[in-house]
Design a protein that fits this description.
Length: 471
């Protein structure tokens, strides 16, 4: 091997090896940081409700998944958890309805055995259970019969007025009261006679109207346990007295309320809340009461941080939305400040979600912990989005990084791209450049070594001696 070959191998190959070792350490360090990063679960959005909400969630998730300082709990895990919670809520209501039916059957058996006290107790328990689960009641047969048998049991105890009141309540709730007849096969003549007298009184006073409105509209309406239409809904010819109104819409919690109608016009406004949504906690007084439930949710999801959020119509702006978001730390029970962002155009919801992710992550410190809100003594926690031209605007990622967004979607893209290009590092400061250089150097050294080895030993051992000139 020639001398310069040896020097090339001796000096340059170790340099390349050292550089590769440093690059490996950097990779392991980044991997360690990623593994120690807190897991964040996005529990504030419901993509099944509106398309704009689905796009916002997609943009927000895309941004968070691209950050090294957080890990994102999969959307499948979050959706599975929310579905289980919704099914549990429905299951609990159905269990109460079954208990109500069992109480009714127990009361009926007691009535047939002339055990009036037991019957009254069971029918009263049945009615209480029905009222608690009225939002899920879609057949009022047992409800009506519980009122009727309660009245009959009251008659057995010689409490005529209370008995008539119970039977009246049954007739008021019965949508088929005008045509319903009690069978002489199952009911005594006195009860049938009383029932007919009260029915005529109720029919003579059926002059109430009811308007049911909801936010949002087009929600289903149940009146006294019977489906009657969608909001905005108007019913006429109702009897004055106690009625039950239930309103529900996909993606929202069921709303139910007992209302006492008076002759004339009556109205009900149902403000539907997002079903199983986790909105930001905007009042300090609610921090402690909300922390325990949120910590349990985070534990079930295996998350260190919950991203609480809500989407609502922007005040005084048509076709615009407002996002509110907040981070909650499961380990410390602390809440970040509430961040607010406007969505002027629903077609740009993905890009705005992407941007909102950056704004929210500003509430994490260098260790990945939530920075608690401690500012001032006011109740509301609100931070408006940065104004155009501020530093936060200059750091918005390119729209090309957001799935489904093209350069023509927003006019500011050219400016943002120019800013992004101006902040790029020179190529000779990039890791990939020196990796390529090292590979070329090592390859060249290897070629020289193998070329040198391939030469014959005879060529390497030739001794050249100048032959002096002959005389």
């Amino acid at each position: 091997m020639k001398a310069w070959h040896r020097w090339f191998v001796v000096f340059l190959v170790p340099i390349f090896a050292f550089q590769s070792l440093l690059f490996s350490f950097a990779s392991f360090d980044r991997l360690a940081v990623a593994q120690s990063a807190p897991e964040i679960a996005i529990v504030g959005f419901q993509p099944a409700v509106e398309a704009v909400e689905r796009d916002l969630l997609e943009g927000l998730s895309s941004y968070l998944q691209g950050q090294a300082n957080v890990r994102v709990v999969s959307a499948e895990s979050v959706n599975s958890f929310l579905t289980k919670m919704e099914l549990k809520e429905t299951s609990d209501a159905q269990t109460k309805l079954k208990q109500a039916e069992e109480s009714f059957r127990a009361g009926k058996r007691a009535y047939e055995l002339l055990k009036a006290d037991v019957a009254v107790r069971e029918f009263t328990a049945a009615l209480r259970a029905f009222e608690k689960s009225m939002a899920y009641l879609e057949s009022n047969r047992y409800l009506l019969m519980a009122y009727l048998y309660l009245g009959m049991s009251k008659f057995l105890r010689k409490k005529t007025k209370e008995g008539r009141d119970a039977i009246r309540a049954m007739i008021v709730l019965d949508p088929k009261r005008a045509s319903r007849k009690l069978s002489a096969k199952f009911f005594p003549p006195k009860i049938i006679s009383t029932y007919e007298d009260i029915k005529q009184e109720v029919l003579a006073n059926s002059k109430a109207t009811l308007e049911v409105n909801s936010t949002p509209e087009r929600a289903r309406v149940l009146l006294d346990g019977v489906r009657v239409g969608r909001t905005p809904y108007k019913a006429t010819g109702l009897s004055a007295g106690k009625h039950y109104v239930s309103v529900y819409k996909r993606g929202f919690a069921r709303w139910s309320q007992a209302v006492t109608l008076k002759p004339g016009k009556n109205s009900v406004d149902a403000e539907l809340k997002r079903n199983l949504a986790y909105p930001p906690v905007e009042r300090r007084a609610l921090f402690i009461s909300q922390s325990t439930a949120l910590q349990q949710t985070a534990k079930q999801l295996g998350a260190d941080i919950l991203l609480l959020a809500t989407l609502q119509a922007a005040p005084a702006k048509k076709s615009a939305y407002q996002i509110k978001g907040q981070l909650f730390s499961a380990s410390t029970g602390s809440f970040s400040r509430v961040e607010v962002l406007q969505v002027e155009n629903s077609g740009l919801a993905k890009q705005r979600g992407f941007r909102f992710g950056k704004i929210l992550l500003d509430n994490l410190n260098e260790q990945g912990a939530v920075v608690p809100w401690t500012r001032g003594s006011g109740d509301r926690l609100a931070k408006q989005e940065p104004q155009s031209g501020r530093e936060a605007d200059l750091q918005v990622p390119a729209l090309s990084d957001v799935p489904g967004i093209t350069e023509t979607d927003i006019p500011e893209l050219a400016e943002w791209q120019a800013i992004k290009r101006s902040r790029k590092k020179p190529f000779y400061k990039s890791t990939w450049f020196w990796v390529v250089v090292g590979a070329v150097v090592a390859g060249g050294a290897g070629v020289l070594v193998f070329t040198d080895i391939g030469k014959s030993d005879a060529d390497h051992n030739i001794l050249v001696i100048d032959n002096p000139s002959l005389p």
